[in-house]
C-alpha cells in the first residue's frame, strides 16, 4: 500500500548498516508497504546512496538531542539523547499509517498485519511493563501530534533522556486504556526474559510454524562505544 510505510532512523553510518539489514529483511519477507528511512547529516553521502538502493524514501532530518546527561548517565546509555530525532517520524504525513522500527531490529517473518493496529500500539518494556518499548510501534503521522511532541520535548523533556521516556509520557494512557494497543510481548523479548520464562517463550513464540519471534533485536546500539552491545 502506497500510503503506509515501515520507517526507521539512522544517525550515523554504523546505524545505517543496521537499517540496511532491517530494510532487506522486510523485503525478504515480502512486505507490501513502502520503506522509509530518516537520516541525519552525520550519515555520509556514500552511505545515503546505499540506503537509496533498499529504501523507497531516504529523508534527511535535523538531529534532536535531549542533552539530558543526568538521566542518560543513570541508564549508562549516553548515546540515547539523539534518539529524540525519532520524533520526526510523525512529520511523514504523506503516509496514513506507519510502523516505526529501530535500526537494530531484524524481521524474521512478514509483519504487515501490524498495520491493522491503531496508534499507539507497542509492546511492553521488560524492564517496566507499564511502559511500552519504543523500538517497534504503530503510529499515525500528524502535523498536530508532531508539534505537540516537540513542545513536550522542549518544555518537559524525557524521564529517561531518550525517546522512550518522552513517548510514554505523551501516550500515558497506553498501559490502561486499550489492551488492543498492546503488541505481544514477543515483539520485545530480551535474553533475560527468554531465560526466565522459557516455557512461555516456547508456547507463544511460534511464527510461521517455527519457534521464532517475528522481530529480533540485533543489539548493536553501543557499537561505537563498547565491545559488549546491549539493547534497551
Automatic annotation (TrEMBL):
GO terms under biological process: glycogen biosynthetic process
MF-aspect GO terms: glycogenin glucosyltransferase activity; metal ion binding
Function: Self-glucosylating initiator of glycogen synthesis. It catalyzes the formation of a short alpha (1,4)-glucosyl chain covalently attached via a glucose 1-O-tyrosyl linkage to internal tyrosine residues and these chains act as primers for the elongation reaction catalyzed by glycogen synthase.
Location in the cell: Cytoplasm
Superkingdom per UniProt: Eukaryota
Listed InterPro entries: Glyco_trans_8 (IPR002495), GNT1/Glycosyltrans_8 (IPR050587), Nucleotide-diphossugar_trans (IPR029044)
EC number: 2.4.1.186
Annotated metabolic or biological route of this protein: Glycan biosynthesis; glycogen biosynthesis
Protein name per UniProt: glycogenin glucosyltransferase
Keywords of this entry: Cytoplasm, Glycogen biosynthesis, Glycoprotein, Manganese, Metal-binding, Transferase
Top EC category: transferase
Family stated for the protein in its record: Belongs to the glycosyltransferase 8 family. Glycogenin subfamily.
Catalytic activity: [1,4-alpha-D-glucosyl](n)-L-tyrosyl-[glycogenin] + UDP-alpha-D-glucose = [1,4-alpha-D-glucosyl](n+1)-L-tyrosyl-[glycogenin] + UDP + H(+); L-tyrosyl-[glycogenin] + UDP-alpha-D-glucose = alpha-D-glucosyl-L-tyrosyl-[glycogenin] + UDP + H(+)
One GO cellular component term: cytoplasm
Requisite cofactors: Mn(2+)
Amino acid at each position: 500500500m502506497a500510503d503506509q510505510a515501515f520507517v526507521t532512523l539512522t544517525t550515523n553510518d554504523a546505524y545505517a548498516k543496521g537499517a540496511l539489514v532491517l530494510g532487506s529483511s522486510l523485503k525478504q519477507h515480502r512486505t507490501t508497504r513502502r520503506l522509509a528511512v530518516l537520516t541525519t547529516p552525520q550519515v555520509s553521502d556514500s552511505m545515503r546512496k546505499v540506503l537509496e538502493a533498499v529504501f523507497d524514501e531516504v529523508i534527511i532530518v535535523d538531529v534532536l538531542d535531549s542533552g539530558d546527561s543526568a538521566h542518560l548517565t543513570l541508564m549508562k546509555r549516553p548515546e540515547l539523547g539523539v534518539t529524540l530525532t525519532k520524533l520526526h517520524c510523525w512529520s511523514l504525513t504523506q503516509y496514513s499509517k506507519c510502523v516505526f522500527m529501530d535500526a537494530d531490529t531484524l524481521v524474521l517473518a512478514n509483519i504487515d498485519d501490524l498495520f491493522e493496529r491503531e496508534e499507539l500500539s507497542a509492546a511492553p518494556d521488560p524492564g517496566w511493563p507499564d511502559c511500552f518499548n519504543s523500538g517497534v510501534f504503530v503510529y499515525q503521522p500528524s502535523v498536530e501530534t508532531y508539534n505537540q511532541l516537540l513542545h513536550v520535548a522542549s518544555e518537559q523533556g524525557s524521564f529517561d533522556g531518550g525517546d522512550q521516556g518522552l513517548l510514554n509520557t505523551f501516550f500515558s494512557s497506553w498501559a490502561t486504556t486499550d489492551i488492543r494497543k498492546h503488541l505481544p510481548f514477543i515483539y520485545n523479548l530480551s535474553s533475560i526474559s527468554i531465560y526466565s520464562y522459557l516455557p512461555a517463550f516456547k508456547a507463544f513464540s511460534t511464527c510461521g510454524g517455527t519457534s521464532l519471534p517475528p522481530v529480533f533485536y540485533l543489539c548493536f546500539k553501543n557499537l561505537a562505544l563498547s565491545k559488549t552491545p546491549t539493547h534497551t
